Amino acid sequence: MAFAHSGRTLRLSTAAAVVGVSALALTGCGLFADDEFPIGTENEDGTTTLTVGVSPVPQGDILRFIDEELAADAGLALDVVEYQDYTEPNPALVAGELDANYFQHQPWFESEVEGQGYELAHYEGVHVEPFALFSERHDTLEELPEGGQIGVNNDPSNQGRALAMLADADLIELAEGVDPAEATINDVAENPHDFEFIEADAASLARTLDDVDASVINGNNALEIGLSPTQDSLLVEDPEGSPYANFLAVREGTEDDENLQKLDELLHSDDVRDYIEETWPDGEVAPAF
């Protein structure tokens, strides 16, 4: 679901939403509703530089491909700023440090907007990074031991995604009536293997894989440590029809900016589709358009 179909909803800024801005913004006075920050920087050669926050892989790779191969013809240049922590790009966008960011999916976006009061909008999905269950100790699901430790995300939107994947594989059963996208470990109704769920942030799950029997790891974090969700995992999420497509997010009120629209058009171009399919031919990253 993108803003073009859902309409806009103005939300008051909160202290948690703003980093390094004036006290006016921190009081929730809607400082960003009309967007006081200029979009991009005009260069002497006539191009406009957009500063975009990303996760390093694959978002950073995709934007660097655009910058090197496509941006100039569209009158753009890209300054790609990498973040390892998912909690950082949205505050940076709200504070005007970024013109856009490209790292998040709809459930994360909604939890941030609703929980933090961010005034943000987004375009259509660009790609999906399938979640997968990895292990350095075991080669198959059947080898997972009774009482084994399973790492899962500690943020609500991605924890539900992880548990839904485990439930689809009949490793656990979620309580009746629970929306899988919003499920937590407290909603696990049946746990026949008595798994112990270890909660951690996405980056930590990748770094500590050898400390547990298995971990559900975000696709981008898996790629960063050299693991393929489709080739190296015990279990992988089906990306078809996934609600977890990553997209370009912007401040509310800037989505009609010509340069931001140009960037989004490039992200949805045949060239980018081909780049994704050629760079990740085994479906580790899948186009969502």
TrEMBL record:
Its main location: membrane. It is a lipid-anchor. It is found in: Membrane. A lipid is attached at residue 29 (S-diacylglycerol cysteine). Residues 1-33 form the signal peptide. It comes from the Bacteria. GO terms for cellular component: membrane. This is Lipoprotein. It comes from Nesterenkonia xinjiangensis.
